[in-house]
Amino acid sequence: MSNVSVLNMEGKEVGTLELNDAIFGAKIKEHLVHQAVVLQLANNRQGTQKAKTRSEVRGGGRKPWRQKGTGHARQGSIRAPQWTGGGVVFAPQPRDYSFKMNKKEKRAALLSALTSKVQDKKFIVLDELKLDNVKTKDMKKVLDNLNVSSAILVLGKENENVVLSARNLPGVAATTVNTLNVYDLLKYNTVIATKASVASIEEVYA
Q1: Residue 154: in which H helix or E strand, if any?
Q2: Strand order, beta sheet including 13-18
């Protein structure tokens, strides 16, 4: 099992923590990580884009001029795709972009993302993360102490003061263990977790 330093909110080392290799030392499966990211982005798409085909656009029921003898190219409708105001060829229609992954694949993708952060030394463990008040400045000070600019804060349970204090910082987000996902782990440069949240992750994914 690998050990990581445990820091306080001042950025000073106050101990070490032994990580479970089954979770933080898993085999990295890049194809599943990629699939998990595509899954989340696809499932977030509304799929409501719509344009009218030539059968749906209004007008154009009459042939604009006779077939021969006018000097113009033959036309059957003023709502054909080549006309201004005409229908769209292969117009986009509402559709569902979502798809599914197996639970084991989702778990393997998440463990791969966590393992990569640990291997890249982008995984910071705090003894605790508490703020008495909602203050963006206090949250910024904690991140400066840790020498971090872009981070996802993983909390063991919902902490409103931390969530609201981090909300206005660019490149910073807060989440809980039960809403942790691959996309957020990869989007932010560093993962900052409390000892309690690490224990929760090991309990959930053990």
Answers
A1: strand 151-155
A2: 13-18, 3-7, 123-126, 190-194, 151-155, 172-176
Q: Among the residues of the chain, which ranges form H helices?
A: 21-24, 30-43, 103-119, 136-145, 160-167, 182-187, 195-205
Q: Domain-by-domain residue ranges, the chain? A: 3-45+99-205, 48-96
Q: How far is CA 57 from CA 49, 60, 83, 84, 93, in A?
A: 16, 8, 12, 12, 14
| Coil, strand or helix at 186 | helix
pLDDT tens sequence across 9-20: 888 888 898 898
The distance from CA 103 to its chain's CA centroid, rounded to whole angstroms, is 18
Per-residue model confidence as pLDDT tens digits over 67-81: 999 999 999 999 999
Task: Report d(CA 12, CA 7) in Å as an integer.
Answer: 5
Tell me the CATH number of domain 3-45+99-205, given options 3.40.1370.10, 1.10.10.10, 3.20.20.70, 3.10.150.10: 3.40.1370.10
Q: Are 26 and 109 within 8 A, CB to CB?
A: no
Given the DSSP bridges, would you call strands 172-176 and 151-155 parallel, antiparallel or unpaired?
Answer: parallel
Model confidence, pTM: 0.82
What's the rounded Cα separation, in Å, for the pair 188 and 28? 18
Give every CB contact of residue 65 below 8 A, 6+ residues apart in sequence.
Answer: 72, 75
Contact (CB, 8 A) for 36 and 182: yes
**Nearest-angstrom CA–CA distance, 19 and 206:** 12
